[in-house]
């Protein structure tokens, strides 16, 4: 029986990247719906759960993608609302690569430092990757600070993460100026830049003057880097005594996690893969 992956993409053109990864992960055919809205989900999922017997339902799965993470989350909720009893299929959310990127970023940092009791700073931590990475770091026992240009937004996101993931050691700070970022870096052992492409947050001179830093990572592959001095290919390189990871170094693990996650969808019909579940898949790589 063929493995069918239903790709629900919120963009006008469904992601070619996600399609290629799906085939490489073992999907036989993709059923692609672009510009998907939550109102259209029910009929599509009914077609997925009523066409194969329960024992064979694992051969159908759903992947939710697109550039808009908020829309993707709503699609995920709509999909799961259709399921009942054993009439369901496995589903994965990775809009804009946010779950796999966050998981890979934290796992790379974890290779170099024990996160239990660690002080972590996430630049642009209120975005999709930053929020998920904050939760994963905190789950490993770290104390996490997320930055935003607005104190109100930083506080709101910190509280949301704590409530959604049942965590405690997460706080938000406003950071707009060099002085703000220097203050935020004080006594931090790990810094992750999770901002959008082409925005620099801290210069090399700024981070060189903070002796507590042991590991830094930057998900941005477009110049200028979020953390000046980290090149995209960096994969555990050492700069001025600090271990660093760039976008491509993180991306190699992100790809492995993405492929593994899609492959796992076809092993059972009851998986719901979000950031935490993707993160745990590292144990199976």
UniProtKB/TrEMBL annotation:
Pfam families linked: Mpt_N
InterPro entries reported in the protein's UniProt record: Aminoacid_DH-like_N_sf, Methyl-teptahyd_DH_N, Methyl-teptahyd_DH_N_sf, NAD(P)-bd_dom_sf
Gene3D superfamilies: Methylene-tetrahydromethanopterin dehydrogenase, N-terminal domain, NAD(P)-binding Rossmann-like Domain
Domain Methylene-tetrahydromethanopterin dehydrogenase N-terminal stretches: 17-96
Protein name: Methylene-tetrahydromethanopterin dehydrogenase, N-terminal
Protein species of origin: Halanaerobium congolense
Organism placement in taxonomy: Bacteria, Bacillati, Bacillota, Clostridia, Halanaerobiales
